[in-house]
Specification:
102 residues, mainly alpha, 434 Repressor (Amino-terminal Domain), 5 helices, 60% helix, 0% strand, elongated
Length: 102
């Protein structure tokens, strides 16, 4: 038996469009930038935990402070590219790869 799709359901993209506007609007771009920063913080935290490092140990390895690592992981701080590269390379033993899309 096939279920009928509810007419009240919306996709995630439709929900985001409704809440923050279409891509290209100031409110939507602010949301997208915040989301990317959040993802970066989660990625660093997951890598740190996988390497069995505390925030303090990671900070020591890459020459920063525990509070700065915490702020990055909790999306409370902007991060410079040079610092991000140090955290990934020196602190986590990884390699940073960037891509740009438009």
């Amino acid at each position: 038996m096939k279920k009928k799709a509810s007419k009240n359901l919306t996709s995630f993209v439709e929900h985001i469009d409704e809440q923050f506007g279409k891509r290209g609007t100031a409110k939507r771009e602010q949301y997208e930038q915040g989301y990317e920063a959040f993802k970066l913080g989660v990625l660093i935290q997951e890598m740190r935990v996988k390497k069995n490092l505390t925030q303090e140990q990671l900070a020591t390895k890459c020459g920063t402070t525990k509070s700065y690592i915490s702020r990055i992981e909790n999306n409370a701080s902007d991060i410079r590219l040079s610092t991000l590269m140090r955290i990934i390379r020196d602190g986590l033993g990884g390699q940073l790869n960037l891509s740009v899309s438009y």
